[in-house]
UniProtKB/TrEMBL annotation:
Family: Belongs to the major facilitator superfamily. Monocarboxylate porter (TC 2.A.1.13) family.
Keyword terms of this UniProt record: Membrane, Transmembrane, Transmembrane helix
A Pfam family assignment: MFS_1
Any one GO MF annotation of this record: transmembrane transporter activity
Compartment list: Membrane
Alphabetized PANTHER family for the sequence: EG:103B4.3 PROTEIN-RELATED, MONOCARBOXYLATE TRANSPORTER
A single Gene Ontology CC term: membrane
Protein name stated in the entry: Major facilitator superfamily domain-containing protein
Topological category with respect to the lipid bilayer: Multi-pass membrane protein
SUPFAM superfamilies: MFS general substrate transporter
Compositionally skewed regions (Basic and acidic residues) per UniProt: 15-26
Taxonomic placement: Eukaryota, Fungi, Dikarya, Basidiomycota, Agaricomycotina
Length: 451
């Protein structure tokens, strides 16, 4: 067996251990009976219906939640183009980008709060309250007047961002109440709702706000669509198990993270790479418009890229069987960085199609693999929630500052090569951090083998 194969098998075992830990700590009620291998393989598995009406309904509900929240957030490129060209022309592209970057920042940060509340049994409070907040925010967005930046920022940047962040963790975590053996597949299915949403929402928005309906009625139509889907999700999703009594000491776990060099470089890699990650999501459609490639193609440029991201996410589940997970993450971030640099020479329809397909594919792999890498960096799986929270905070910082910096570099004259160079270099630095992280992991593995 080669070293890479051995490391790949180790990752698979780590992920299986993560699932088993989730069964005992996050999904089951406290029990005084000792946990044994026999109960884990026999009685415990029988406690999970692995489907049933409630299980499948909850999975469909989680899919609809991702479709209506994160899928809407990563469709911001449509709004970036429309605001910069038509609706908020008194502000620069950098200022407008703060709307989407704040939304992305709050999506990550509010997930920390939502995770703690979910653990304490507030699933329905989060589901109903955040769904109402998402619907309210989008309907209020439709009332925003032209060139009133603060109205759009409050509704779309803050309101919708908080709603998406509060819904993400509960909608994914509740699947562990019903599925054990197929949990990874069901979570992949639920998360794919975001990518389908990132295909559907741009098509709908581009054909409404840029069409006969106009901004106000187009956003209301979109808000009504999202509200209806969230209402269905609220009716479908149900918990099955009481909240866990298990609690992790956050401060003690965070202190251990500060002494883990591999984890530190992993978080630095996430923070720096995400600075570049959002650049095509926010600016690809505007780039196509400014190159006079026609409204029809420009409107579908994001759709092409997000469809490729969906394919990349699905294919990553196959690729990790043959390659070490950190290696795959490094390959994905390296390719994304090179492709972003290649935006300098993208001026034609064919160029934008090739860029969208390639970048979308490798970006999808990155999104699918950063979570397993964090699991690999967690020696004590009882601290995984804390480490995931810290990683999300690192990504939130990168997502907050990246798009506005890119907008400032573009200037009102839209000098596209500046944004491509900056984000390509930022992505390469993030990739370098992941390489250092992997080298530390390899050294640790060799040291353990000697002992």
């Amino acid at each position: 067996m080669s070293n890479d194969e051995g490391e790949g098998i180790q990752v698979i075992h780590s992920e299986k251990a993560l699932l088993n830990r989730g069964d005992k700590t996050a999904s089951e009620p406290a029990s005084s009976e000792p946990s044994t291998e026999q109960s884990e393989s026999g009685t415990q598995l029988q406690d999970f219906p692995e489907g049933g009406w409630s299980g499948w309904a909850t999975a469909i509900g989680a899919f609809l939640v991702q479709f209506s929240t994160y899928g809407y957030s990563i469709s911001f490129g449509v709004y970036q183009d429309f605001y910069a060209q038509t609706y908020i022309t008194n502000e620069t592209a950098s200022t407008i980008a703060w709307i989407g970057s704040t939304n992305a920042f709050l999506f990550e940060i509010c997930g920390l709060v939502a995770g703690r509340l979910y653990d304490r049994g507030y699933f329905y409070h989060l589901l109903y309250g955040a769904s109402l907040l998402q619907a309210f925010s989008l309907f209020m967005l439709s009332l925003a007047r032209p060139d009133n930046y603060y109205q759009v920022f409050l509704t779309q940047g803050i309101g919708s961002g908080c709603a998406a962040g509060l819904l993400y963790v509960p909608s994914m975590a509740v699947l562990s109440h019903y599925f054990n053996k197929r949990r990874e597949q069901l979570m992949t299915f639920a998360s794919s709702g975001a990518y389908l949403g990132a295909v559907v929402h741009p098509i709908m928005l581009n054909n409404t706000i840029n069409g006969q309906l106009g901004f106000a009625n187009g956003v209301r139509a979109s808000a009504g669509f999202v509200s209806g889907l969230l209402l269905i999700a609220c009716l479908l999703m149900r918990t099955r198990l009481p909240p866990s009594d298990f609690r992790t000491n956050f401060l003690a776990a965070a202190e251990k993270c500060g002494k883990d060099s591999a984890f530190i470089f992993g978080c630095l890699g996430l923070c720096i790479f995400v600075v570049a990650f959002y650049y095509p999501l926010f600016y690809l459609q505007l780039d196509a418009v400014r190159h006079d490639l026609g409204d029809t193609f420009s409107f579908y440029s994001l759709v092409i890229m997000n469809t490729a991201s969906f394919v990349g996410q699905l294919s990553s589940t196959v690729l990790v069987v043959y390659f070490h997970v950190p290696t795959m993450l490094i390959m994905a971030t390296f390719c994304c960085s090179v492709i972003i640099l290649g935006m300098i020479g993208v001026h034609t329809v064919a160029g934008f199609v090739v860029f969208g397909v390639l970048y979308g594919y490798f970006a999808g792999i990155f999104l699918a693999l950063w979570t397993p890498v964090m699991a690999l960096l967690t020696p004590d799986l009882s601290e995984l929630g804390v480490r995931m929270g810290i990683a999300c905070a690192a990504m939130a910082i990168g997502g907050l500052v990246g798009p506005p910096i890119s907008g400032a570099l573009l200037t009102p004259a839209y000098v596209w090569w500046r944004g491509a160079v900056f984000n390509g270099i930022a992505g390469a630095i993030g990739c370098t951090m992941f390489i250092v992280m992997q080298r530390i992991l390899i050294r640790r593995s060799k040291a353990k083998a000697k002992n």
